[in-house]
Amino acid sequence: MMRRLSIGVLSIALLAALGWAVRSLPPEPSGLTAASLAKLPESGVTNPVTAVLLNYRGYDTLLEVGVLLLAIVGVWSLRRSEWAAADLRGRPLLMSLLRVLLPVLVLAAGYLLWIGAFAPGGAFQGGALLGGALVLVILGGLARRWLQRQRGLRLGLALGVLVFAAVGAAAKALTGGLLQYPAGSGGPWILVIESAAMISIGLTLGLLYCGGRPGEDP
Amino acid sequence: MMLQVFDWILVLVLVALAWRCLNDRDLFRAVIKFIALGLLLAVAWVRLRAPDVALAEAAVGSGLTGALILSARVRMRRRERAAAPHNPSGREAAR
Predict the structure, then answer these.
(1) Which chain A residue has its CA at the smallest distance from B51's CA?
(2) What is the ipTM of this complex?
(3) Is residue B79 included in any domain, yes or no?
(4) What is the pTM of this model?
(5) How many domains does chain B have?
(6) Minimal C-alpha gap between B57 and chain A (Å)
(7) Taking the domains of chain A in order of start, what are their residue ranges?
(8) In this complex, do B52 and A49 lie within 8 Å of one another by their Cβ atoms?
(9) Which of B64, B68, B70, B79 to substitute to test the interface with A, most A CBs within 10 Å?
(10) Which residues span the domain enclosing B57?
């Protein structure tokens, strides 16, 4: 009883502190908002969120993709996935649902990737959709043979970081700044990075679901 | 006016759902409430004019995390069943 009461008091105190912090925020956007919006036409994309993520602060996003890779490396090195998906190929209803759903999911992921340059969307959202599609495929037992191909899986997981770093190195060679794209041509570079990142993010999120390294290893 | 009412209802439902999610004795129902909470949170992000965060919240916070927690619960139950094979009522005693 005492414990619950103290937890409640602490929660209310935290809520009050957070509320006070929000109230004391300046009403006008401050910081770098105006500067980043002013430079938007030069960034190669028209969606300010994507411009920040992949142009102004591309280094942060590179490290974030690296964090995702580290997460799956950690899970894979902890344990092997003993979890064998039920074979649902004999269930016609689920299979026909997947048959409709999977192409739509892949198409929507590609759409989100493309629209990320102009409107909300991007590699992470598209990758999350791909991850969801992969979870459905694994749940349906359709990915067993495919999950055995360790080398391909590992390449796919690392693809985002590899391409991101390669683009960074290429930009460094061209302009002298890491991830500083040549003037006026940011769009294609960003699209290349986001495509690779989306594949890696989707694979990572889907394979995290297995909770371990799939397949038989020597 | 209508939107303000909507926002207030959203906030109240979010807090109530979070509370029920934490306090539900049935873990399965708690997970379902968590997924619903994630979807409503995505709506809240849209209302805060952060559609990017809303998309990520709906896909990751609600969809994938929900699936992960559900599979974790299935594993937990399997382990509990293996630990106590002669449970007279057929349901797990300690959750």
Answers:
(1) A120
(2) 0.72
(3) yes
(4) 0.80
(5) 1
(6) 9
(7) 68-218
(8) yes
(9) B64
(10) 2-83
